[in-house]
Amino acid sequence: VIQAVSTLFMFFLPVYAVAKICYYRPRQFLGFTPKITGKQVLVIIGILLLTFPLSGSLAGLNEIIPIPKNWADKFKKLEDARAIQEAAMINIDSFAKFAISLVLIGLLPGIFEEVCFRSGMQNIMTRWFKGPWTAIIITSIIFSLIHLSYFGFLVRFGLGMILGLIFYYTRSIWLSIIFHFLYNGVQVAALYFISLSGKKTPPKELEENFPLWAGVIALVFIIFLFKKLIDFTPAGPEEPEVEDNDDFHNWATAQS
To answer: CA torsion angle for 144, 148, 153, 157 (degrees, to 10)?
Structure first.
């Protein structure tokens, strides 16, 4: 409950308040208005399945990046402490706990974090930088840093890039939320079935490393599926027009 409330106040409410105050069409600004199609969802699921080998290869790449030994020891201690905390929090040994975990670990972070990082941060920075790529990269870096995991940095950075591109190309936050929910939900389900088998597997063991070549192949197919996603999205990527979305700025100018 504490985690749900804290993420609501940290991630969702500030962005919603900015959208509500500064824009006449806050739902459009946040990306809740575009309709999604079954074809888009199927493509998103395909990208999701390919994200796991890509994440595994990024995790392996993260581990072989040379860093000073004292840094590595410090990061390892932080990872061990994080794993202990997660193992204590994620105790999924019944269907009721599975359902609760699916909401707390899958659904709520999917909604709150996507609204914060994609609807808010990436959306605003895309306007600042007059284009998507710088905004998506910076947002993905910050998205990864807030998870406080050095050895998982590239994994979450890659995940942030995929989520950012989904939002940019479809203009729908719903598809980013669905992807984020399914990504977390698959791992929650894996923990649930592991607990049913009587094993006690720390969450970090679920992020099995893949060889780099597997990640490269997965990335090629992900790019192909993104092209399909663009084809299945009416009108393709589109930047909202200034007169539609900068209403607060226009209003303030008119008043002055």
So the answer is: -10
Question: What's the pLDDT tens digit per position in 87-134?
Answer: 666 677 788 888 988 998 899 999 999 999 999 999 999 999 988 999
CB contact at 8 A, 121 and 139 = yes
Residue in this structure with the two tokens 């009416």, named with its chain if needed: 234
Please report the beta strands in 128-217, taking only residues with DSSP state E, as ranges in sequence order.
none
166 vs 173: CA distance, rounded Å: 8
Neighbours of 212 (CB within 10 A): 14
Range 218-237 burial, b when 16+ CB lie within 10 A, else e: bbeebeebbeebeebbeeee
Query: What's the pLDDT at 201?
Result: 54
Q: What number is the average pLDDT over the span 171-189? A: 94
Contact 234, 8 (CB under 8 A): no
Residue whose entry in the numeric block shows the structure tokens 């204590």: 88
Tokens of 154: 């590239």
Looking at residue 255, its amino acid is Q
The single-letter DSSP state of residue 121 is I
Q: Could you identify the residue written with the tokens 């197919």?
A: 221
Which ranges constitute the DSSP H helices of 23-107?
Answer: 26-30, 38-64, 69-89, 95-101
Per-residue pLDDT at 240: 47
